[in-house]
Every structure is written in C-alpha cells, then in structure tokens.
Task: structure prediction
Amino acid sequence: KAGVTQTPRYLIKTRGQQVTLSCSPISGHRSVSWYQQTPGQGLQFLFEYFSETQRNKGNFPGRFSGRQFSNSRSEMNVSTLELGDSALYLCASRDKGQKFSEAFFGQGTRLTVV
Amino acid sequence: AQSVTQPDIHITVSEGASLELRCNYSYGATPYLFWYVQSPGQGLQLLLKYFSGDTLVQGIKGFEAEFKRSQSSFNLRKPSVHWSDAAEYFCAVGAGYGNKLVFGAGTILRVKS
Result:
C-alpha cells in the first residue's frame, strides 16, 4: 500500500506569490490534516478535512486555505506569501476518521520564500 | 488549552545506554498520547500511542512509554540505544474535535559511539 504522497517536495517562491501544495492520502483514508513545521514555532496544526469538509482549523491567517476532493486528495493554498511562511508543510492521513486513530505522515513539502 | 512540554531540547547518550525522553501534557479530559520520530528532512513516523488501558505501551523499534496520569507524563524509554536512533522525537496529544494533534517542541537525540 502506497504511503502518503506530498508534491512537490521542494518549492522556492517569491514574497507576494501564492502556492498550492498537494497531498494524496493512503488509499481508503478519508481524513487529511495539514501541519506547518518551523524551527521557531515547531509543529502547528493548520486544518483537517474529512469527506471534503473542513472539520477543524488552527490559528493561522486567512491566507492559508485548503480543500479536499472526492477522492480524498487534498490541497492547501497560501496566498500573498511572506518570508515567515518558509517551512516544512506536512500532511497526515487517517482512515475512517475515528477519533485519534493513527496518523500517517508524508515526507513534507519544503517551501522557501525569498 | 491543550499543551505538551518536552523539557529537554537535546539529549546525548552513548550507544548501548538506556534512554528516557520526558513529556508532560496538559489536557482536561482523558488524553490520547503519541510519540513520533523524525529523521532530518523526513516526515513523522509513529513510535507508539496510548488511548486507554495498560499504562505501559510498547512501540516499534524497541521503544516503550508509560502513561502516568498523576504526573501528567508520558515518558518514552528504550533500554539500549542504537546509533540509528539518532533523530528528533516529538510527543503529541490528541486535542479537540476531529484529529488535531498538539505537539511538543521536540527532543533531538544524539548517539555517541
């Protein structure tokens, strides 16, 4: 069974641009969560989608958005990029969305904003 | 609000020595607790989890953790560390609605030969 796939692995963007990151969960998994990892703030929860609905959202500005498609693949978008958005963005998938079942993480997308 | 504290930012142990990584959590209800490991440039891998029942849980790679409600702790242990265990370790608590995880700041483990 393939694991969680995140694309692209690396991105370099210019301040003010927007970016879209993609996450394909493990086959059959319906819950996808996104996390931002930075040296200063650590791992922070962005949002979670389950069956195409956003179920929970972290404390991030509206520039950060996401969506989930009917095949459970998810995208997150960051508009008007700032230097502080440079981070490793991790996606995690779970199966039926049972509360606190095991989350499987992808390898992440390393975003650098210059 | 839920929070997780990992008091040790760095720990260095000799190969073959025992290891204990500390984790304290703050959560009003029954916590769902996890330990993850991350190698440089990689995602997170689950080592073990605690939901209920036996307070001593076994995980992969020879790791175990003990849940102590009275101390709000969930410390990770390994009897004999291998050089390949060098990585960053994160303790997390499941919090709120859905599948949100709140992570500690992480502990970087260095293994010296």
Summary: Chain B has no helices and twelve strands. The longest strand of chain B covers residues 87-94.
